[in-house]
Amino acid sequence: MGLMDIKSGRDIPNEINVIIEIPMHGEPVKYEVNKDTGALFVDRFMTTAMFYPANYGYIPKTLSEDGDPVDVLVVTPVPLISGAVIPCRVVGMLKMTDEAGVDSKLLAVPTNKLTKMYENVKTYSDLPRHLLSSLEHFFQHYKDLEEGKWVKLNGWEGPEAAREEIMASVNRYTEE
């Protein structure tokens, strides 16, 4: 079985599968899984001296408003490797726009079956404020040195908005 065979989740939108592209605290390289082949490609080298403060990946078999699968930030106690699949539940969404349009990021934690560490985290505000600030700072500045690129943060929304985004993206994918 390859990455192309991975389902969106066991209980959409309550439990989702996230395919990790970029480990948290990794080198400043933007990796992207090719959605046709499942191969992991180097998308670009980040021009800012920054690292992702959480694992970064996507929900397979979804299509967000920007034409890519839905982006997800996964909070874990340790970095995950690129290509790993982790069952998660969403706790919020960082609303964003960039030079290409809407580019929101879902925020998720591992399911309770994987670890009880996050069982009391029901919404993004249950996570440490410093982590949320780090995520905001990263996405506000990670494109600063890339000509013609920009990001605007539009605030956090809770898990219900995140689940609505998941369902809309699954529907977009199936209609394509």
Q: Can you characterise this structure?
A:
By secondary structure, the chain is of the alpha+beta class. It has one domain (3-175): Inorganic pyrophosphatase (Inorganic Pyrophosphatase), CATH 3.90.80. Helices cover 17% and strands 31% of the residues. It has 2 helices and 9 strands, in the order ββββββββαβα. The strands form 2 sheets. The protein has a 5-stranded mixed barrel. A two-stranded antiparallel sheet has the order 2-3. The mean pLDDT is 95.
Shape: globular
What is the percent of helical residues? Answer: 10-25%
**Count of separate DSSP helical elements:** 2
| Highest CATH level, the class | Alpha Beta
The multimeric state of the shown protein is single chain
Largest sheet: 5 strands, mixed, barrel
Cross-sheet strand order for the largest sheet: 1-4-5-8-6
CATH level-3 fold name: Inorganic Pyrophosphatase
Mean pLDDT: 95
Which architecture per CATH? Alpha-Beta Complex
| Low-confidence residue ranges | none
Report, as a whole number of angstroms, the end-to-end distance: 23 Å
Tally of extended strands? 9
User: Which structural class should the secondary elements be placed in?
Assistant: alpha+beta
What Rg, in angstroms, do the CA atoms define? 15 Å
CATH superfamily: Inorganic pyrophosphatase
Percent of sequence in beta strands: 25-35%
Tally of distinct domains: 1
The helix-strand sequence is: EEEEEEEEHEH
